[in-house]
Amino acid sequence: MTEPLLSLRSHLDAVAGFGELRTVRGAHWDLELGGIAELSYRLPGSPAVLFDEIAGYPAGMRVLTGSTASPRRFGRTLRLGDDLDDVGVVDALRGKPSRWAAAARQFPVLPVDDAPLLANEVPGEKVDLLSFPVPRWHAHDGGRFIGTGCFVVTSDPDTGVHNGGCYRMEVADDGRGVTLAVVPGKHGDQNIRRWFEKEGRAPVTVSFGHDPLLLVLGGTEVPHGISELEYAGAVLGERVPVVTGPDTGLPIPAGSELAIEGWLRPDHLREEGPFGEWTGYYSGRRRPNLAIDITRLYHRDDPILLGAPPGKPPHDYSYMRTVMKSAMIQDELAASGVPGVVKAWAHESGGGRLFIAVSLRQRYAGHARQVAYLTAQCPAAAYMNRYVVVVDDDVDPADLDQVIWAMSTRSDPVQDIEVMKRTWGSKLDPLSVEGEPPFNSRAIIDACRPYERLDTFPRVAESDPEFLRELAAKWRDALA
Ligand SMILES: Cc1cc2nc3c(=O)[nH]c(=O)nc-3n(C[C@H](O)[C@H](O)[C@H](O)COP(=O)(O)O)c2cc1C
What residue ranges are annotated as transmembrane (predicted)? Predict the structure, then answer.
């Protein structure tokens, strides 16, 4: 059988082909996979790591980390090109998210009868998720998390539109079950709540290994009402083949390595967490959480789990989140009709959410604040943003030194910092207080030159770039 669309193995072949794949044999699922992955994010080029012969498990059962953590791998995943660098990938992505979203409905999923995934089928009562090498990623995690790079499908009970999301999932009941930690307000959560209200239970399917395109789309705020599977079709220019789960009627990507289907019920809870999170901190305490009653499991021979463990940045998916978020925020600002926005950047050190800088060409009084407020609340940025800094177009918002220079020299704290209160926060926030609703607050910092002084603001003390280029050529030997 040829590899189905969105097969993880095809992705691995491509990554090995351009020399960004390392294989590690014999590491332990308990902390070693997580630690080696953490080391790999800091290596030059940040390679993907494929773990094989994991202690206590048969050779062939593998775990992949770092699937999208370089421009080439990210560019390949988004089908932008296989040889892009940092700048090239950002340029290639610009404008695409909104085009993909608009085209998604032309790519309904394609149900198929056969897939490598169907090679092994395990009935619910025989499921043991710990028969696969599920890692304990960080020393203070509450357990073993099989779901990090996973793709969870729910549906809208009224329209039937599918939603694909990525949420952390901890193995429960000694391998027989698994929790699903969806933050309130996410599209997946809205679907699950509405199923509970209508039917008292909610169907769900989960793939644990697939082309990382599904990790990127499941893990990014694709607009409400758009199926991530159809959106993936728009990225690929082809309908995504799926197997229909017989128990739930929900799709499972045919390219999946390992998948489950089952049901959530409001009273089916298991202890979950804490977990080392993308903020760089462990989240909260161990507490009851929704758990899936698994009715069926499917897996390929020698399945590969797609891991994406977060942590203090840089982490497994901080690069992809920064690039995706930056493009989506920029697209949403353009769609809002506000003029003059040059570039948005959702910094990796803020987990791609907490600290966003946007540059603009100021056109009218109030323009800079308008861009700042819109950014802080646009759907792509609304969840867990903390700081938005707006800068003039002579400042590169992706360069933190330049952003801090602009903040330090063009913003007057008394009048250029504004605070929004009771905005969309999360229990993941290290500042959130146990037992209190997870609001946060956010500051916008207007680090643009004051509009009324645009013509008279002191000149920047740097030479003309063209003059510098000429000097560099003329004095090449002296400057070498
Ligand atoms: C690896 C990874 C793990 C994530 N874990 C969670 C999680 O545990 N809970 C959550 O609500 N969001 C989590 N997210 C973020 C969501 O996937 C993201 O907000 C997504 O847009 C949610 O989709 P939805 O709004 O369609 O439900 C994670 C993202 C990634 C990439």
Answer: none
